[in-house]
Design goal:
about 30% helix, 15 strands, Rossmann fold, 10 helices, Quinone Oxidoreductase, Chain A, domain 1, six-stranded parallel β-sheet, alpha/beta, oxidoreductase, GroES-like_sf, globular
Length: about 325
C-alpha cells in the first residue's frame, strides 16, 4: 500500500485527500517509480477544478511530474535499471496516469534519467516548465539573438523557464508582471527588462526597449483584455503564443493590430511537443544540455510534504510564488 492524492468531486483545493492504494506491477511499456518529489502545476489545479482541456473521470488522481527511483520495470522496457534516478515528462492524460503518490506507474517513453547535478526536487520541477517554453520559443518560433520576447506571468515556473531559454539563445527576455513588487527578483533571474503592467504603459515600454520595432515573440498564459496590448506591442510578422487562460475575462481578437502587424496568434499546448516522438526527443536533448551546462536551473519557490497537498494547491492559487512549487515524499 502507498499513499496517493485523490479527489471525488470537482472543486477547490479542499477536495484533495490522501488514500492508501495498492499499485499494480507495471504493464508492458511502463515503469513503477518510488517517488521522492512531485512538481505542482497550474494545469493540475485547473483539472481539479474542472477548467482544463479534459474533464476528470471521478474519482480521479493528479500529477504530471515526479522524480524518484525506478522500483520495477514492465515488459519491453529498455534503457532503465532498477534503482535508476529518473523524472517524468508530462506526455499523457491525467485520466490515465497520476503522479501525486508514493509509488506510481508511468509510461516509459515519458521517463528520463536526469542529470546528476539535479536534486530530486529540482528534477521534479524541470520538465513541464522547460519543455513547455522550449516548444513554443525554440521548436516553433526559432527564437534567436535578434529577437525580443514578451513573457507575461513571468514569475511563474514556465515564465522563468522562458527567461532562461531566451538567455540561453541570446534573445532579449522582457518579463511582464502586474506590479513592480517582483521586479528585482525577476532581474536576478535573468530578465533583461521588467514591465509592471498596472504601473507602466506596456506598449510604450516595449517600443522604447525595442527601438520601436516591437517584440517578435510573445509567450502568454493569461489572455483576457491584455491580449490587445500585447498585439499592439508586437513586431511586424510577430507571433503570439496563447498557452493558457488565467484571465477570467473574455479574450477578444485584436483585429486591427492583427492586420496592421500581420500577426499570428497561435494556440499552443505542451502535448503538441510531447505527443510527437521526434519533437520530444529534440526537447529532451535541448533541456538536458541546458541543465548540464547550468544555463537552465529550476527555481523552487516553496516545498510542502505530501500530507500538505491542499496547502500546496492553495499556495499555487495565491500567485505569490516565484518559481515552482514542489511536494516532497
Amino acid at each position: 500500500m502507498s499513499r496517493h492524492v485523490r479527489f471525488d468531486k470537482i472543486g477547490p483545493p479542499d477536495v484533495l485527500h490522501l488514500v492508501d492504494l495498492d499499485v499494480p506491477a507495471p504493464a508492458a511499456g511502463e515503469v513503477r517509480i518510488r517517488v521522492k518529489a512531485i512538481g505542482v502545476n497550474r494545469a493540475e489545479a485547473m483539472f481539479r477544478s474542472g477548467q482544463y482541456l479534459e474533464e476528470p473521470k471521478l474519482p480521479a488522481g493528479l500529477g504530471y511530474e515526479a522524480a524518484g527511483e525506478i522500483e520495477s520495470i514492465g515488459e519491453g522496457v529498455t534503457g532503465f535499471a532498477i534503482g535508476d534516478a529518473v523524472s517524468v515528462i508530462p506526455a499523457f492524460s491525467l485520466n490515465q496516469y497520476g503522479l501525486y503518490g508514493e509509488l506510481v506507474l508511468a509510461p516509459a517513453f515519458a521517463v528520463i534519467k536526469h542529470p546528476p547535478n539535479l536534486s530530486f526536487a529540482e528534477a521534479a520541477a524541470a520538465w513541464m516548465m522547460y519543455v513547455t517554453a522550449y516548444g513554443a520559443l525554440i521548436d516553433i518560433a526559432r527564437l534567436s539573438a535578434a529577437d525580443a520576447v514578451l513573457i507575461p506571468a513571468a514569475s511563474s515556473s514556465v515564465g522563468i523557464a522562458a527567461i532562461q531559454i531566451a538567455n540561453m539563445v541570446g534573445a532579449t527576455p522582457i518579463a511582464l508582471s502586474r506590479t513592480s513588487a517582483k521586479r528585482a527578483r525577476l532581474q536576478e533571474l535573468g530578465a533583461a527588462h521588467v514591465i509592471a503592467t498596472e504601473e507602466q504603459d506596456l506598449v510604450a515600454e516595449v517600443g522604447r526597449i525595442t527601438n520601436g520595432q516591437g517584440a517578435r515573440v510573445t509567450f502568454d498564459p493569461v489572455g483576457g483584455p491584455t491580449l490587445a496590448k500585447l498585439a499592439e506591442a508586437s513586431a511586424r510578422h510577430g507571433i503570439i503564443f496563447q498557452y493558457g487562460a488565467l484571465s477570467p475575462e473574455p479574450t477578444l481578437l485584436p483585429l486591427f493590430d492583427l492586420l496592421r502587424n500581420l500577426l499570428t496568434i497561435r494556440g499552443y499546448v505542451l502535448m503538441e511537443i510531447t505527443g510527437d516522438p521526434a519533437r520530444l526527443q529534440r526537447a529532451k536533448s535541448f533541456v538536458v544540455d541546458g541543465l548540464a551546462k547550468g544555463a537552465l536551473r529550476p527555481v523552487i519557490a516553496k516545498t510542502f510534504p505530501l500530507d500538505q497537498i491542499v496547502e500546496a494547491h492553495r499556495f499555487l492559487e495565491s500567485n505569490q510564488q516565484i518559481g515552482k512549487i514542489v511536494v516532497t515524499v
